[in-house]
Design brief:
Rossmann fold; globular; alpha/beta; 11 helices; binds (2R)-2,3-dihydroxypropanoic acid; 2 domains; about 350 residues
Length: about 350
């Protein structure tokens, strides 16, 4: 059937998704693709507000807020929001649910790349990688000759002489578990976590999905326990703490001054979740005054932040520009998925990954 230009449905795409994914869109002659024209900057809100009017679908990044104002502006024909992220704290789920607008997202495909980066940040921050590398880059290495305690930091893996290590997770979903799997060969002995679900079993013995991590089922593992604990215990007992909870009001500044003051002086905190999980000013004080050892952040509240930000000045704070999922392999799959989610919804079909919005009204 030929579709006239007037009959074409409009799909707004907030960033170029690479040639493979874009060609999936361009081969659809029944869809008019409205693409944000720049590759070097984020889609601005005014452009989105202007172009979403009359759209049937929109593909956004976590940098675009799909709030009520934007969704209402689109009009009642809007069928789908497809986000290039596993997180959806930038989207107003209630407005979607009320308007029967479907939501596609990209879980699972980025689990490994984010878990890889979480471990990278734990190692970089505990081993002073930024401070040490900057000495080399500044040409100052000859003035800092090798010395027994130069650039020393706490060891993440369990050393033979103190063979216990507790790894903590704030949020214990797919990425947290993949991070734990990577740490098993490090000789970690205990894993503690806090999770959203109040019904999930507090002890490993009750959750068979966690058994493969443990020494009892895995001869290569030193892990003796995986235990759900209160937040205060998570703070006090973690040697390395990974923040992998969703953003949003429920978790806003969950790591605040009181939390950081409870932590071990040798602890390292890694945030690959959302910047809003940590109170940045409190973290800067914690690093400056030595309440904790170091921090590795892939996300910062108010990102992107400039050189004057309190945390960028901290030598014990490694900050990366939100690159958790940025491997070429992962990003290609995410690009294809975000397009397939949008097209499936426009075609009234099952989406590869749809968030269930039941009960979100
Ligand atoms: C996510 O997927 O939520 C990341 O933070 C952005 O890719």
């Amino acid at each position: 059937m030929t579709v006239t230009p007037q009959q074409k449905r409009k799909l707004v795409v907030c960033r170029d998704l690479g040639p493979d994914a874009m060609s999936l869109l361009h081969e659809r002659h029944d869809i008019e693709v409205i693409l944000w024209p720049y590759t070097d900057r984020a889609c601005d809100r005014q452009w989105l507000m202007d172009n979403i009017v009359g759209a049937s679908g929109v593909i956004i990044m976590f940098t675009e807020k799909a709030d009520r104002e934007v969704l209402d502006k689109a009009g009642p024909q809007l069928q789908v929001v497809s986000t290039y992220s596993v997180g959806y704290d930038h989207i107003d789920l209630k407005t979607l649910s009320r308007g029967n607008i479907r939501l596609g997202y990209t879980p699972d495909v980025l689990t490994d790349s984010v878990a890889d980066l979480s471990v990278t940040l734990a190692l970089m921050s505990s081993r002073n990688a930024i401070e040490a590398a900057s000495v080399v880059q500044a040409g100052d290495w000859p003035n800092k000759p090798w010395a027994p305690f130069l650039f020393c930091g706490p060891q993440i893996s369990a050393p033979h002489f103190t063979p216990t290590r507790t790894v903590g997770f704030l949020g214990f979903g797919r990425i947290a578990r993949a991070t734990l799997a990577r740490l098993v060969p490090f000789g970690i002995t205990h894993c503690i976590y806090t999770g959203r679900s109040t019904t999930s079993p507090p002890q490993i013995d009750d959750d068979p999905s966690l058994k493969p991590y443990l020494q009892s089922s895995n001869p290569l593992s030193s892990l003796k326990s995986i235990t759900r604990v209160p937040l205060t215990t998570l703070a006090a007992e973690s040697d390395v703490l990974f923040l992998l909870a969703p953003g949003g009001p429920e978790t806003y500044h969950i790591v605040d001054e009181a939390f950081l003051r409870r932590m071990k002086k040798t602890a390292v905190v890694v945030n690959t979740g959302r910047g809003t999980l940590i109170d940045s000013d409190a973290l800067a004080r914690a690093l400056e005054e030595g309440w904790i050892w170091g921090a590795g952040l892939d996300v910062v509240e108010g990102e992107p932040v400039g050189a004057d930000h309190v945390l960028i000045k901290e030598p014990r704070c490694v900050v990366l520009p939100h690159i958790g999922s940025s491997t070429t392999e992962t990003r290609k799959v995410m690009s294809a998925m975000v397009v397939k989610n949008a097209l499936a919804a426009l075609d009234g079909q099952q989406m590869p990954a749809e968030l269930d919005l039941t009960g979100r009204v």
